[in-house]
Amino acid sequence: MKLRSIIENGLLRFFLICSVISLSGCWDRNEVNDLALITAAGFDMVSDEKIELSVLVFIPKGGGSSDQAMESGNGGASQTLVRSAEGKTVADAMAKLQEKLPRKIFWGHTDVFILDEELAKKGIAGHVDFIMRHPTLRERGQIFVSSQKAKKVLKLMPPLERDLSEVLKELSQHKLGLNITTKKLAQMLIGDSGDCALPWITILPPENKEKPKQTIAYITGTAIFKKDKMIGIIDDSVTRGVLWLRNEILLGVITIKPPKTDGYISVNVLQAQSKLVPKIQNGKWIITLKSVSASDIVQNTTKLDVSNPVVLKSLEPLLAKEIEKRIKKARNQVQEEMKADIFGFAEAFHRKYPDVWNKKKNRWNEIYPNVELKFDTKCHIRRQGLTS
Amino acid sequence: MLEQGKISPVQMALLMIPAIIATVLLLVPSITAKHAHHDLWLSPIWACGTGFFVVFLSYKLNKLFPEKTIIEYSEHALGKILGKLVGGIFLFFYFHATGIMVREYGEFVSGAALFHTPMAVIIGTMVLVCSFAVLGGLEVMGRASEIIVPVVILLYILLFILLIKDLEVKNLFPIMEKGIRPSLMGSIVPQSWYSEFILVSFLLPYVTNQKKGFKWGLIAVFIVLFLMVLTNIMALLLFGNLTSSLTYPVMVAARYISIADFLEHLESIVMAIWIAGTFIKITVFYYVLALGTAQWLKLSDYRPIVLPIGFLILLQGLWAARDLQELSHFLATSGAIYILSIQVVLPFILLLCASIRKKLGQRKGNKQNETPVNH
Amino acid sequence: MVLVEQQTILSKDRLSIHLHDNVKKLESIYADCADIKFRYFLIGNESKAVLIYVDGMSNVEEIDNNLLTPLMRLELEKEPDIHALIENTLTVSNIKEIQTYDDVVSEVSSGNPIILIDHQSKGISAGIPKWEKRSLQEPTTETVVRGPRDGFIETLSTNIVLLRRKIRSPKLKIKSLQIGRYSQTQVVIMYIEGIADQTLIEEVQNRLNRIDIDGILESGYIEEFIKDHPYSPFPLMLDTERPDIAAASLLEGNVVILTDGTPFALIAPTTFYSLLQSPEDYYEGFIIGTLIRWLRYVFLLVALLLPSVYVAILTYHQEMIPTTLLISVAKSREQIPFPALVEALIMEVSFEALREAGIRLPKNIGSAVSIVGALVIGQAAVSAGLVSAPMVMAVAITGIASFLIPRYSASIVLRILRFPIMFLAGTLGLVGIMLALLTIIVHMCTLRSFGVPYLQPLAPIRNSELKDSIIRAPWWSFKKRPHWTDDYNKVRQPNGQQPSPLKGKE
């Protein structure tokens, strides 16, 4: 009888107990008002021993519904704040940074990490470890390498977007350059070759010289890493070639010059798929890049009649040549000069020839620069636009 | 009988599925990946044999001693003193296992969301909620599982559907790069999880239809197998080599979901799934522990000892390990052998002894050709 | 207690043969009852007789025409005999003999005039009650767009008629009993023989017979006396003002309890899902019925959880919402002096107060209160920086969500449970919400309504009934009745009634 009432009173008692708990304190409670929302973070090298951590803090000024409309009209000019602190490691710097911020640092919304060039040359693995290990940091956060100091980049006030982190996030979503999340970077670092690549950003020269800060940073190329140390930069047109090899191409305009005519034909790549097919033949390591793409003609300044299927067909090999040219350029710079395997050749061989790979993997650094690249490019021009 | 309620075979299966996979789903990819590397998704498949064997064992034992649980019939099979001893070992084991489980829950919650909240509060609230279900009895647990488990499984599968666009099939290869050995090694720990299906032997006496209960037990093993393989494949396709270095790959995977910039950070779904699943899991173990203890001590009702046992579980949870590393190290090494020996070897010995006794009993020419229980 | 016993002994006595004694006793019973009228008259100028009735409860016209006129004009040859009088003289259809004081009292108080005659040990009761009653109106708490507009009223006999008109089969059984020592309220159990389970009917009767109370003024009294789990906040019986709901439940094998003096009928057993159903689900098409049901299920969760989830996310899991949303919330919360939990509590409590005020006030003022409350106070609170705009929105959505639940008794529960969940969300975040949800689920799983699991057909699963809870299947596919207990009349309607163009050609 007594037990029955225990069960039946269960709900009541449970809530009683819970209210006791709630009275005794809320251990992890953090009001939004007490948080410093960090939307981007930058890591700079100060000296050999010290790094500087800069954070972009969002200032939640405004409030009330009527004020908000005005606020957004200002273009968010003064909505952010940059604070920085030095330390031996990122975590150390963060602890010192907290001393300078009245609100609790909140990493949950940090989407962009910027590393400066010096730091990248020194090695990034340790900093990636912090990002992956921290329980609230996002694995989808994007990582960039900047030519200037990260702190300087963070201090920019973009005229169009809310803040710099929004700018970089949107830019990398166009996939014109590399789009590397923390997870992808960590995967590359522990991959078979351990080489990686990160998008390279520089500050866009401001239109208005009087307001030097009203500009953005944008992706101008790719920083190439051997293991976790940066060894070089390639520009954005070469980056396209890298994207083809990594099967990350999303959109792009390719301009070709057909022979025997004046003018150019530009096509817009709409769909592209590429695949690395490795082969070991007579001790020679060969990779074939099989790619299939479909594109539309967007501009035609020649006298060719592109509505004629025969003409279109004759354009396709030209297009393939153009694409191959880009890829070769990328390969020359990255594979032969920098000797960094950012295309995933090592994984491709590992998957296809696990036995050979396990025997030879220690010699990969010697094999890699001599891996031969072959092409199997299929281009298809589907439409010719609305005029003919 | 201490338990008046009856559950349907489906309810039994629904209780068993989370009882196995709830804690496992978060840990299985990283633990199997430690040994199996690329072949981690094969490991649960090798291991599932144990699950089928154990369900078969419990069914056979149940046929020999219908309407009795393992604690009750161990005395009939092994004799009074030895039987009590075996019963005691079982109870101690379940006590220990429940404590570990509760601690795993606490570690996850405090590591993923409530960093500063004292462990005692996190564990205590959960044990309290579980004790309500245990006090409600088997029928209540069965019904609660019918509400909770389908939702949990659907949400879990939804999680993977949302991840599809981020998966890379090439991570699957090469399959069996170093032969079958690594994946077999990786299957040892999952085997110990599958062996928890011996809990079926506690539930079977209260199932309305034992034969169907056996069938649904096997179905439950299949579903567990399916979910484990699914989890492992998804983790592998998403993270590749990174899998083994993540503590909670599924949690990170949920955090990685991003659809249309709005459906982001679904780790809360994982937390909801985990809490709901673990709730059923702890409840089942807790119930078995309470019921078993009452049967072992020959009490007339198990309900008076539920809350005291809950308090002991709370303490055991706090003292089970110093930290997560110690806990997962234990589970991945000596724990596996410990769990397997109690949940597979011991029941097997019981079955052997019981069948020998039965044969002998029949040879003596007794007219009643029933089990030795009734002599 | 002693007094009560004496009274019962006295009233169990049989009527005396002398009118004088009877009148004396009855006058002492009805001492200081100004509304009880004693009309003395002579039958055929000879036999003394008395007519007793309650002023305003009996049809005086009929008394004059059909009782007094024939009796007083009767030409007597011998002592008047009750049987003969009933057979020959009294032109009233509903008439019966009574033998004890108890009968006299109960007949009089139900509005039936009594005639007692000298030298007769029996009396006559004429069933011609008549009192002022409300006309049939559309039930205000359960309105529908499509569906019958009549509702139960306070008079039991009318309510029974309303049901009898819907179910004309003689299998519709009505058992009557009286509850309440002073109120002597008539309570009626209705069921359909052959559909309702016999053990269920007996159980309902037993539980009703066990009630010992001074008076029953509303069916809510009965509900609390016969509830399976007295401490549970969940309603374990369905209450309705609508005869169509009652009739539908009767057809599904439930028992309907009608109480005199209230328009609310009780239906037992009931499940949680039937609390979430509106009669309109069955009157409009099944597709829209299904969608509306799902809408209701979703908003059930919203009504229960939205403020708590808001609190949990804002104080524990800020990373869960998209950055842009968090930024706009952070902006609007910047000047708020309270923690999110306190803010939510203030808003929820004041919302509940507004709602209660709206119910209590006269109708035309009630709407004014809600406008003032919702628009003016809400707007002022936001611009004064006391609460944030998103919080006001969350509370408003919660309020609307709780109005989506068709049963008032069910939405009250959600309103109660919302507050402890909010506290838990404020202490343990989403973990607290999950724990609260699990507790509620476990609690609901322990509940039974007259032996039927509360969450049936989902827990325990009954496949054939899922099509009337998860979805609303078309009418022609409901081939089986709901299954309350083991023994039941399974088949509702034959197979193959799905309409199709082929059928016309046969």
From TrEMBL, chain A:
Organism: Neobacillus rhizophilus
PROSITE patterns with a match to the protein in the record: PROKAR_LIPOPROTEIN
InterPro entries registered for this protein in UniProt: GerAC_N (IPR057336), Spore_GerAC-like (IPR008844), Spore_GerAC-like_C (IPR046953), Spore_GerAC_C_sf (IPR038501)
Organism domain of life: Bacteria
Keyword line: Germination, Lipoprotein, Membrane, Palmitate, Signal
PANTHER family from the UniProt entry: SPORE GERMINATION PROTEIN B3
Domain Spore germination protein N-terminal as annotated: residue spans: 28-203
Subcellular location: Membrane
Protein's name in the database: Ger(X)C family spore germination protein
Coiled-coil region(s): none
Domain Spore germination GerAC-like C-terminal: 220-385
Example of a GO biological process term: spore germination
Keyword Signal: yes
UniProt topology in membrane: Lipid-anchor
Family that this chain belongs to: Belongs to the GerABKC lipoprotein family.
Recorded GO CC terms: membrane
UniProt-listed Pfam families: Spore_GerAC, Spore_GerAC_N
Automatic annotation (TrEMBL), chain B:
Gene Ontology annotations of biological process type: spore germination
Subcellular location as annotated: Membrane
Transmembrane segments: 12-31, 43-61, 81-102, 114-135, 147-164, 184-204, 216-239, 269-290, 302-321, 327-354
A Pfam family matched in the record: Spore_permease
Organism superkingdom: Bacteria
One GO CC annotation: membrane
Chief location of this protein within or outside the cell: membrane
Membrane topology category: Multi-pass membrane protein
Keywords recorded for this protein, A-Z: Germination, Membrane, Transmembrane, Transmembrane helix, Transport
Family indicated by similarity: Belongs to the amino acid-polyamine-organocation (APC) superfamily. Spore germination protein (SGP) (TC 2.A.3.9) family.
Protein name as it appears in the record: Endospore germination permease
Source species of the chain: Neobacillus rhizophilus
